[in-house]
Design goal:
Elements: H1 9-41, H2 48-76, H3 86-98, H4 106-115
């Protein structure tokens, strides 16, 4: 490119959106865990609703982290494909996480079904 990425309006906008999505996802995880931890410390046992909240927050956080890494990887262009580029390993690591059980998009189906009172398999919640 003729000018640095920092001067590109599309890149600037994408970076801001990635940042806000990451912060919002992180806040949801931390807020949810703090509330649940408070209840557990008071002697309560974890409820299905709390398990659903953890699943929803954690799956969302993984998805938003992947989106942020994808943004950075694509913004960097072809240089990011080489092993000596810092984004190459981060891209690979993030996508490895998304292939694990914890990141399944189908968790949102389970959560949504539970929220609507429909039959749902809560095995992984």
């Amino acid at each position: 490119m003729r000018s640095p990425l920092r001067d590109n309006a599309v890149t600037q906008s994408g970076l801001a959106q990635a940042e806000v999505n990451l912060r919002a996802a992180r806040a949801f995880v931390l807020q949810s865990m703090a509330e649940i931890w408070k209840d557990l410390c008071a002697g309560a046992t974890i409820s299905v609703e709390q398990r659903v909240t953890i699943r929803m927050a954690s799956t969302n956080a993984i998805a938003k982290a992947r989106e942020a890494v994808d943004f950075a990887y694509h913004a960097a262009g072809a240089t990011a494909i080489f092993e000596n580029h810092p984004l190459e390993r981060r891209f690979r690591d993030m996508h490895t996480v998304t292939q694990q059980l914890q990141a399944r998009s189908s968790h949102f189906e389970t959560v949504g079904a539970w929220m609507m009172g429909a039959a749902s398999d809560l095995t992984f919640v």
